[in-house]
């Protein structure tokens, strides 16, 4: 049963709305601060004037990052270096990285420094059949920076993946698409109203992006987070399955049960956490939802 009091649209200031036309110029008004976290091993960007920052961002030489980590069996096949971008246009109620919502809270890093770090793991990626995953936040908020990283990784022969909501899918150029091997596409909800209450934004851009990826033959791993009272309405789940069923390049769906691991992060940031009283779904409920996706012919984990 949906809890109508849960609504991500309350996080947006008057005038921001939840329009699918939202297409910010990345970092134009959010130059990252000199201080940051989680980038050990990646050289910090040199000191720059505000103008130099803006020019470097526009060229893709400079980006705003939150952190990076090496993971196995997550964020794509094999052992992966997952790089978390700072900045996101969505305000998902269950976001487990709320500290990545604003680009100016990230750490400035150059594309060259990030690629130098990626290069260190070439052998690991080759042996494990892994690669690099660009996540966030939302990597497509920084398309010029992402484009340089995708191009550089592919020149090294490294498998590339993007973890995205697809809301800013139109920021992915054809060249970037050609350098992308896999997209982890989060379908937050299958019904437009549920999607807006979950994220504060529109669903249609995600649907359109999935169709574009399928037309280009780019592999998709669909993701759906099961949140009691928010995304668990059977009609919403059926609608999400119907959307993903239409993507010919979709190879699997991951149903991820909601957890409370991010609660302290929200509170430490002084942000209202609307899901503080929500209990994670049981294993049985999660498996029932997986069966709904399977009933649509989708390989589901």
Automatic annotation (TrEMBL):
Domain of life: Bacteria
Cofactor needs: [4Fe-4S] cluster
Span of domain Radical SAM core: 74-299
This protein's UniProt keywords: 4Fe-4S, Iron, Iron-sulfur, Lyase, Metal-binding, Oxidoreductase, Pyruvate, S-adenosyl-L-methionine
Plastid is among the record's keywords: no
Keyword ATP-binding found: no
UniProt GO MF annotations: 4 iron, 4 sulfur cluster binding; [formate-C-acetyltransferase]-activating enzyme activity; lyase activity; metal ion binding
General function of this protein: Activation of pyruvate formate-lyase under anaerobic conditions by generation of an organic free radical, using S-adenosylmethionine and reduced flavodoxin as cosubstrates to produce 5'-deoxy-adenosine.
Family, per entry: Belongs to the organic radical-activating enzymes family.
Protein name in the entry: Pyruvate formate-lyase-activating enzyme
Organism for this UniProt entry: Corynebacterium hindlerae
């Amino acid at each position: 049963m949906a809890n109508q009091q849960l609504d991500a649209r309350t996080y947006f200031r008057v005038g921001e709305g939840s329009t699918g036309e939202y297409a910010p110029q990345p970092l134009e008004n959010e130059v990252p601060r000199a201080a940051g976290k989680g980038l050990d091993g990646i050289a910090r960007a040199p000191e720059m004037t505000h103008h130099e920052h803006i020019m470097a961002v526009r060229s893709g030489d400079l980006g705003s990052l939150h952190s990076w980590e090496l993971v196995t069996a997550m964020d794509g096949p094999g052992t992966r270096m997952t790089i978390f971008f700072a900045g996101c246009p969505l305000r998902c109620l269950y976001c487990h990285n709320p500290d990545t919502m604003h680009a100016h809270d990230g750490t400035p890093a150059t594309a060259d420094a990030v690629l130098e770090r990626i290069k260190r793991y070439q052998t690991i990626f080759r042996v494990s059949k892994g690669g690099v995953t660009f996540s966030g936040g939302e990597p497509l908020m920084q398309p010029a920076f992402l484009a340089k990283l995708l191009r550089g990784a592919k020149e090294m022969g490294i498998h590339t993946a993007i973890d995205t909501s697809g809301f800013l899918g139109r920021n992915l150029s054809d060249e970037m698409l050609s350098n992308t091997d896999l997209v982890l596409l989060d379908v937050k909800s299958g019904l437009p109203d549920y999607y807006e209450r979950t994220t504060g934004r529109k669903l249609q851009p995600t649907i359109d992006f999935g169709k574009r990826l399928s037309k280009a033959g780019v592999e998709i791993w669909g993701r759906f987070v099961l949140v009691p009272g928010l995304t668990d309405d059977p009609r919403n789940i059926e609608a999400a399955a119907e959307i993903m069923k239409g993507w010919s390049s979709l190879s699997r769906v991951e149903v991820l049960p909601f957890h409370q691991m991010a609660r302290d992060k929200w509170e430490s940031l002084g942000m209202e956490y609307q899901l503080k009283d929500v209990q994670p779904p049981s294993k049985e409920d999660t498996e029932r939802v997986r069966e709904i996706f399977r009933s649509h012919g989708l390989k589901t984990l």
